[in-house]
Design a protein that fits this description.
The chain is built from ten helices and 17 strands. With 424 residues, it is an alpha+beta fold. A hairpin with a 2-residue loop joins strand 4 (35-41) and strand 5 (44-49). It is globular, with a radius of gyration of 25 Å.
Length: 424
């Protein structure tokens, strides 16, 4: 009989998902747990397996469509059954009981969702999760690998050969160009252009940034920080950190100072519940760290940052950064932040006005540390100086709040002894 597979409730607060790529077509025979479709929600992509064995008789959403939770994604005629009318869709967003929870392609023994680069052509590439994982480990963009497997499937040998020998000209490779971004060789003025569909990760980023800018009333405040004393502390601590396998940078210290400031200025560790018109002040400190991933900007989340040591923070930052690079970050790694820090490290520049990670109240931009002349006690001396900028939602906090918060952070960073006293 016909089985309606509804779009499942993939995670807390998820109400819809974007279809990134179907792995089956109408008429295909599928096995139980065979991958059906890749769906993106927020900034994670999950691969939904088939809950039944049978034949695909109907696909209701095409690539790029948005499917609400609770709507029928696909209809499967179960093997050996008699075709009967499909059950009506549920009146609520939760999936029907027979539909198992989606399982993500992940490392064995884990439940991590596979985060993929949805801007690549890989959304249309036939490959097993193991082959995709190998491609990530080898740093190979799977969408560029010529396929030799059955039905145009990329095999592990294809990935290895591409990594060793690079791209080759073949009929298979030429055939695969049909999956490249839509390109218009010349515009009306005779200039070359390339058109790429706004989908997947890039679309999620575009939607999130647009919502933040058009909802939150941004203002930015900037302060110069003298990091000289902290530079010396870090240099002394690097050897101890190395003994513990930790590569120590300045971000853990900055996060500690920020958490201390948030405890004094709780209106910045908050969000607005628009449905009830209530300001929700968070009593926990999950610090988001904006990082550049293969498909664009993502915000990884350090949970309970106030309870972690400097070394523990450093380890967690490295773990999350590696998870983003290898596309193995879990949903918990990417959601639930209460305040965000945006840092490009040595590329941090002199000044930026970061966009708030909605629905948070504020975001801090960390800029590069440089040796510059400064006046101290009437003398011109060389100091390690850095700018911190904070963008704040003026609907929920005032300029005074943002300025005083950053002043407290400045005090702690400029006098690390005071910072460590605050941590006790």
């Amino acid at each position: 009989m016909a089985f309606d597979f509804y779009m499942p409730d993939i995670g807390e607060g998820v109400v819809e998902g974007e279809i990134i790529g179907w792995k089956v077509k109408v008429g295909d025979t599928v096995k139980l747990d065979q991958p059906l479709v890749e769906v993106m929600t927020d900034k994670a992509t999950v691969e939904l397996p088939s809950p039944r064995a049978g034949v695909i008789t109907k696909i209701n959403f095409k690539d790029g469509d948005i499917c609400p939770v609770g709507k029928v994604l696909v209809v499967i005629e179960e093997a050996g059954g008699t075709k009967t009318p499909s059950a009506p869709p549920p009146s609520h967003r939760a999936p029907p009981a027979p539909a198992p929870a989606p399982r993500a392609a992940a490392s064995a023994g884990t439940s991590q969702i596979e985060v993929v680069d949805a801007t690549e052509s890989r959304a249309r590439v036939l490959a097993t999760p193991a082959t995709r994982r190998l491609a990530r480990q080898l740093g190979v963009e799977i969408g560029r690998v010529p396929a030799t497997g059955k039905h145009g499937r990329v095999t592990t040998d294809d990935v290895k050969n591409y990594q060793q020998n690079g791209p080759t000209t073949s009929s298979t490779a030429i055939a695969r160009t049909q999956h490249a971004p839509i390109s218009i060789p010349k515009n009306t003025m005779g200039y070359e252009e390339e058109r790429i569909p706004l989908r997947g990760m890039r679309k999620k980023i575009a939607d999130a940034m647009s919502r933040s800018v058009h909802t939150a009333a941004h203002f930015t405040y900037v302060e110069e920080i003298d990091m000289t004393e902290l530079v010396l502390v870090r240099e002394r601590a690097k050897a101890r950190a190395a003994e513990r396998g930790v590569k120590l940078n300045y971000l853990p210290f900055i996060i500690k100072a920020i958490v201390s400031g948030l405890k004094k200025w709780p209106q910045l560790n908050a969000s607005l519940d628009e449905s009830t018109q209530e300001i929700v002040r968070k009593k926990y400190y999950h610090i988001g760290v904006a990082a550049q991933g293969p498909g664009g900007l993502v915000v990884t989340v350090i949970r309970d940052a106030d309870l972690r040591s400097i070394f523990d923070l450093s380890k967690e930052i490295d773990r999350l950064a590696e998870a983003v690079r290898s596309n193995t970050a879990s949903r918990d790694d990417l959601t639930g932040s209460t305040f965000t820090v945006s840092s490009l490290g040595k590329l941090g520049g002199v000044l930026a006005t970061p966009i708030i990670n909605f629905p948070e109240v504020a975001i801090v931009g960390v800029h590069k540390i440089e040796e510059k002349p400064a006046v101290r006690n009437g003398q011109i001396v060389i100091r390690h100086l850095m700018n911190l900028s904070i963008s704040v939602d003026h609907r929920l906090a005032d300029g005074w709040d943002g300025a005083m918060f950053l002043q407290d952070v400045k005090t702690l960073l400029e006098d690390p002894t005071t910072m460590f006293m605050e941590m006790i």
